[in-house]
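Example A, followed by Example B.
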Amino acid sequence: SAQKTAKFAEDPNKLSHKGVSLKNPQKRSVASTCRPSFFKHFARTSIYNALDPDTHYPVEARPQYASDLFFMGNRLTDREERVREFFLTPASNAPDKRFLLGGNGWLTGDLPSNVDYLGHVYTQDHNMFNSSALAVLNVNRAGMARFGFSPPTRVFEAAGAAACMIVDHWPGIEEFLTPDEEVLVAKNGQDVLAHLDKLTPESASRIGQAAQRRVLEHHTYEQRAAQVHSLLTSLL
């Protein structure tokens, strides 16, 4: 604005609030004018995905969508084998259990008879499916699982709905949810089945409610925004 430009008129080389030189804003990039401390701060600071509690929360379970395990994810080349390991193979080995599969691309797959394919699940239906399953499975992409410390939004959304989650093991999961108390961790398909065999509606509810408390206390977008604001304010 004209007021901001006038503010720096006495020293046109002074950085604006956006880090751009007012003298030659087209010739100097933001990166070239930022303080070195700016990059040092961001190099050691991670801003993760989080929960929006206004959109993902517990709702009344729908009996027609009840299942032992619900997984939602599109069919992707870097996740397909992991979905087979953690979801489809356990389904094949547990014909007495019901599995629900949501996401695009699975119609052409050879699905076990006890897997009901839902197709694309719209955002407004996430809470319904998360609240109706005994357990909800998350399977990270191969790269995310290998390097860790990359919780997908799906984890926070399911926790926000107080779902009992089973997640594939990846480094750093304990930084976000406590294993066996707020989340169940599986290193392979056998672990998934072992968790399902031990779960009861009561234990699943207890784990899901603990996960919900954790994300509401520490992992909402409001808290992430405060983290970003604090970081940027410290650079002024």
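Example B, a separate protein, is given below in the same form.
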Amino acid sequence: MMRPSYLYRALPVFAAAAFAGASQPAAQPDEQAAQPDTRNRGQVDTGVEVRELVELLGSDSWLERDLAMIELGGLHPRITLEDLEGFLPDPDLSAEQLARLVQAARDRYMTHPKGALGVSFGTIRIGSIEVMPIQDDERFPASAMLRGGDQIAMVGDTVIDGSLSLRAQILSREPGDTLPVLVIRLGELIEMDLPLGSYDELTGAARMDPELMRMALMLRWQRLGIEVPRPESIGTDIGVDSWARAAFPEGAQPDPRDPDRRTRTALVISPEMPVSTGYGYRPTVMTPWASEQDLHTRTGAERTEINEGLARPLIAKLDLLGRYRDQIATAMAGAEGADADELASKAAEIEEQITRTHAELGALAGPDSEQP
């Protein structure tokens, strides 16, 4: 059985050092300086070590699985986040290996260099976050490009729907990277590539909570093209109708302990739309299903609420793109030569985005619904 190469190797090294220290006279200062520590330098292939540790994440020993995850997640001094990311798409990983490797990557990401814009936030709306840049700070070059009152509307093709999503976009990048944004300045839409400074150099930065880190890491992996396989959930092919028949079987007699047959089911997963409902979801707000009709009514309402939440950023995006299209059309009226060609290309790009966004909105609304 293979052992974690760094942690397990370190234990005998420490023991040997303690024994040597107890049995031999201490070296003089000059002798210590003349003998540099060459242990492990250039002797180990980090990629091989990572592979060994990833394999140990599936060990039969609970202790070995945990120790390997600790090494991958931060203890091993030479392993990087990029090392772990190279193994994430491996289709041969078991569900537990993948879950542990993802957690180790999240732990590594906590200390990985992260970008910072060097701004504070003002008024926040979907598709419009007002920013106030730090003044005269060379560590955050974007502050010289932004003005007080500028509003960041989009990052790339994504509408910003709150401060959390903008912070995640920034933190998903590294110092020196650029953030492609669509900025609203005095009613005009402007595309910018904002260079990022370092999060570690921010003064009074907001706390990085686990949800923010999860969002930022997912965005990083999306840009890098890293697809993390998702373990298949049990029961995903069971629809709401099947849940209803199981909860309220035809001809069943009321349970004397619950004569109203108020089924306390906490989760329904439908092939059409995952829906959380029932007694265990929001116990201060929701109550058990009183009947099969109640189940259908409430799951339908939940589905509508989820769809409406997903639709709001898309509607805001259509509004922004429409305004940008009109702005480009006005500029094209007086443009010539290369400028006209560039504007025409941009107009075509915007039209493509509008078409895709309408399709996304239509998928949420359903085939019989009218789009705004």
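On Example B: Strands lie at 115-116, 119-125, 128-133, 151-155, 158-159, 178-185, 188-195, 197-198, 267-269, 274-276.
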